[in-house]
Amino acid sequence: xxxxxxxxxxxxxxxxxxxxxxxxxxxxxxxxxxxxxxxxxxxxxxxxxxxxxxxxxxxxxxxxxxxxxxxxxxxxxxxxxxxxxxxxxxxxxxx
Amino acid sequence: xxxxxxxxxxxxxxxxxxxxxxxxxxxxxxxxxxxxxxxxxxxxxxxxxxxxxxxxxxxxxxxxxxxxxxxxxxxxxxxxxxxxxxxxxxxxxxxxxxxxxxxxxxxxxxxxxxxxxxxxxxxxxxxxxxxxxxxxxxxxxxxxxxxxxxxxxxxxxxxxxxxxxxxxxxxxxxxxxxxxxxxxxxxxxxxxxxxxxxxxxxxxxxxxxxxxxxxxxxxxxxxxxxxxxxxxxxxxxxxxxxxxxxxxxxxxxxxxxxxxxxxxxxxxxxxxxxxxxxxxxx
Lengths: 95, 282
Description:
The complex is a heterodimer. The longest helix of chain A has 11 residues, at 2-12. In chain A, strands 1, 2, 3, 4 and 5 form a 5-stranded antiparallel β-sheet that branches. Chain A is built from 1 helix and 6 strands; from the N terminus they run αββββββ. In chain A, strand 4 and strand 5 form a beta hairpin. Helix content of chain A is 12%, strand content 60%. Chain A has one helix at residues 2-12; strands at 18-24, 28-33, 36-49, 54-69, 72-82, 86-88. Helices cover 29% and strands 17% of the residues of chain B. Chain B is α+β, with helices and mostly antiparallel strands. In chain B, strands 3-7-6 form a 3-stranded antiparallel β-sheet. In chain B, strands 1-2 form a two-stranded antiparallel ribbon. Chain B is globular, with a radius of gyration of 20 Å. The N and C termini of chain B lie far apart (47 Å). The relative contact order of chain B is 0.18.
């Protein structure tokens, strides 16, 4: 599924050039389970279009499961929950 | 409240409703013709065929469009752009350009149903690929997309209310309704519209739900297909604004708005504009 998404953005889909500015809040560590450490992190995304127009594009939470691999923390799972179900036409780059 | 107050005389405006295949159609107008008078039985039949068993809503979202609602209606009415624009259909073999098909248009032009028909002799044709059409990029076609995997197992021959919205035979996937933009006076402004997208699945079919969620990769603002449908209207709006006095015409499939046994036609687009002008007295 991830391969499809990368192929779409690099080769297959037609869309306007754009970029995001992510502002990520402090993660709330919710506790540890057998799967790993659960964290809840708020985010805000501003979208900058090719002509310079900026929109407050999305806000929401990352619901993450993190695991320790050696000295590093790695994501096992990330669920992105948007605050609004109303989204501008082009959500090309993943949030 | 005083005795003289009659509650029956002061309620919300009543909608005139009718149902078809479990969908509720509503109008604020008492004068609008009945649904049965507006569309051909063949068109209603195809809608009912897709929604022939109870469905439930898996989820919903709103896709905000940067263009007038009529540009999106044109997109839905345009029976051939999907094969050319949406690279995912061609490259991942969800549809093939060489497939047969056609469009049914209602007598007043406002309603249509389009369909594709797989023909065995089309399966290996390279007629379009040889022309270097974008949606037939061979280097991509070797890959197989997640949403397409199931599609390859379903029956070869199918008809659907709109192949772009319903990628499988007899199974409801998406109903895109121009929510908030039923008419020019009630849109989200002259240059804006909003699509109310519902993901549906058959009731009591958990495996179906998983497939439907995977196919959500095709629709909505992040959809491989719908993100293009969404932004293309904005391109057209901006382009048209710079050429208000210019005219260009492509008579694809003739000048009329009758049903045709090919999807390489703009019959349903012309039908929409003929009906719109008539309704609006333009």
